[in-house]
Each structure stands twice: as structure tokens, then as C-alpha cells.
Amino acid sequence: MFETLQDRLGGILDKLRGRGALSEADVSEAMREVRRALLEADVALEVVRTFVDKVKERAVGVEVVKSVTPGQMVVKIVHDTLVETLGSEADPISLAAAAPVPILMVGLQGSGKTTTTAKIARRLATREKRKVLMASLDTRRPAAMEQLATLGRQVEVEVLPIVAGQSAVQIANRAMQAARLGGYDVVMLDTAGRTTVDEALMAEVADVRRATNPHEVLLVADALTGQDAVNTARAFDTALGITGIVLTRVDGDGRGGAALSMRAVTGKPIKLLGTGEKVDALEDFSPQRLAGRILGMGDVVALVERAAAEIDHEKAAQAAEKMRKGQFDLEDLRGQLDQMSRMGGMSGMMSLMPGMAQMKKQMAGANLDDSLLKRQKAIIDSMTRSERRNPDLLKASRKKRIAAGSGTKVEEVNRLLKMHRQMADVMKMLGKGKRGPLAGLGAA
Ligand code: GDP
Hints:
434 Repressor (Amino-terminal Domain), eight-stranded mixed β-sheet, 9% strand, binds guanosine-5'-diphosphate, cytoplasm, SRP54, AAA+_ATPase, Signal recognition particle protein, ribonucleoprotein
């Protein structure tokens, strides 16, 4: 399953790669293809519409992070929207209720309901060390009751003994009673299935629901049935109010639309995936993993995420750009000094900055410790705003005032001004190359 959708979307989005800027027309064309792919994958029309609109809205005019192509950016947006449509967070079965916790299993006959009941019981018993009781409520099909008994022996989980002639509600009540007396944590109630949704079935299951007040009502649906599974989910949710979905036969090669649609149509989480006939073929549902599988482009998503993390560096590069243009004033220097003290003092900092080794040599002998940093900051703090922005204003009398105000000497003020000039020059010089020397520092 999912292969078809993955291939289709993959092919479409590949076309977008390598383009310069992404126009509205580009996005629209891509979205037409995405729409077609989703419809072919049997995603419900209403879900496709909402999905495509959302992606389009997000993609047009999006700020494309440097170092990725616009196409890669769109892949990421499609991916994130897929994850969102699928439910964002993994949503495991909840047992947060007073024991014994009733879990009602519902679904059509042949969907894999009984098998899934045993799979979940096994998982709760082994992984979560819960004492589990299973009961079959399928009064019309003795074979179904036998099947659960067999599975119970296989997964080593207790199954409520069969009593002939009882109704589904009576069996459910008996199961709850037995669980209370026996100190069970969980009761799994496997309801009867029909080949199609019918009123008698819904009424019976609704009765059981009322009698047992289940903590989870899990719909088991066959992924291979595509759009039918979506309609089934809608019908069961309307009639009973389900709390989650288990999608079975995800191991088959059906179309991937069911998962997307079911979540979107019912608003209920897909909790687990059935991936085979064996009792351990049960997987946690992860929206991220499924979206990645649908797109088959996890690497691109990771790439865009990494690139986005570099945006901070871009801010720093902007600061460096300012310096290159000779707009590096004493206020900027004050900011840099602050950063330096935060990042382990000037000496340590300078060794990290390309091009700063020379500066360091020039300043050899100077006291490159934190007390120097503090004094330099005090000097700048003693200046007026216009002095900080225009160091040329600083003639002798002003320097004297600043030295007195900061508890330093005029020579020190001069040394700071000289350092500022030199830094500004070095910036300008380096600026002719690539990124500014402070680009790696992270902007304040
Ligand atoms: P029920 O009528 O809904 O209770 O369905 P069953 O539990 O009897 O399952 C019907 C058939 O589907 C059985 O042969 C199961 O082994 C098979 N089945 C159930 N779940 C899966 C699954 O996730 N993958 C595959 N391949 N087969 C499954």
C-alpha cells in the first residue's frame, strides 16, 4: 500500500526541483498534479480539495530558504500538510480509566476485526503487562467465537467462555463482571460484523456501547477497500461515535487514499496499522512515517529543516553585511562585545572567527580577559547615542569625559576607538569575499 501515491507525488514534485523562483502559476500546475494523484490514490474528493487548497495557500509566496530549491520547499509543505491531515501526533490506545477498561472493537465482517482484537490484546499483555480478557459478541456466528478462542490460546490471553443463547449485551455484561471479579485491567469486546453497514448491526453495537460505556471504540477497517472504508468509517462514527481507527492490510498493495481520507472525514485518529496475518503484525501509526512513506522523500524534508535552522546564521550575515558597508558603529561593537562575553570571552571568540587571528596578534600583550571586555563596554556606555553612532565626534574633551565616566583612562578610550576602526576595516576587507566574519556567531 501507499506505493502508488508515493510514486505519483514523487514524479510530480521532481518536476519542480531546480527552478529558481516559485510563481503562483508553478504552484497551481503542481497542485493540479497533486490533486490528480490524490484522486487516483482514492482519496475522497472533499479531502483532496481541502488538502490542495491548504498546500497552495502555504506554498505561494513562501520565503524559500537558501540552499534548497523551491521544489524541495513545496515537497516540505506537502509533507507537513500530509502530516497535519493524518493527525500530527501518534495517538496510542488509551487505558486511562478505571479498571477493567472496556475496549469495543467494531467493523465490517472480514475487515480483520477478530485478528486485530487478538493482536491488540497480545500487545497490551506483553508490552504493557496488562491482564486482558477477550470476549466475542458475535452470537450469530459460532465460528467467529471459536476463532477468538483459538487466537486467545495462541496469544496466551484469556477468552470469556461461551454460554449458548446469550445476547450480545448479556455477553458484554458477563465479560465486565468476570473482569471485575478476576482483577482484569482490560476487556476487549469483539462485536459481530456484517458484510455491509446495516441498521440491525448498528443498533446491536449501540446497545453494547450503552451497557459497557467503553473507553475506546475502535473501528477496524480494511485499507484495501479504499473509498468503501472511508464510507464505513463515516457510517460507524455517525451511528456509534468511534474513538479511533485501526487500518488493516496495510501490507497489501492497495491505494493509499484510505488513511488520509478516514482521518480527515471522521476527525478520529488512526491508532494502529495491521501489517499482516500474524499476531505480531501490528504497528503504531505514525503520521510522520506515513507521510514520509507517501512522499518517499524524508531526506528532502530533513534537508529543508536543517536549512531553516540556518536562518539565524542569515541574520548574523545581515549584521556582517552592515559592517562590510562600513556602517559598523560603536553601538554594533557594543552588541558584539556582549556576544563575546556570552560566548567565552574575547580571546576564545577571536580564535573562532576567520580573519581575526591577525587582529589578535596586533593586540598581543593587551589583556584579553573579561575585565577588559567589561571596561570596554563601560566606555561605550558612557558615550552619548550620537557619539556611539558617529565616533568622529570624539575629540579630546569628550574622550576625557568618557574616561572619567567609565572609570578608565583616555588611552584606553583611544585603544577602543582604534580597535573599532580596525575591526570595521577588516570587515570591509573580508566583505569582498563570501560571508562576513561574524556570520557564524548567531545574531543577537
Ligand atoms: P473479521 O471478520 O473482521 O473478524 O476478520 P478476521 O479477523 O477474521 O480477518 C479476516 C482475514 O484477514 C483473516 O484471514 C486474517 O488473517 C486476515 N487479516 C487480518 N488483518 C490483516 C492484515 O493486517 N494484513 C493481512 N494481510 N491480513 C490480515
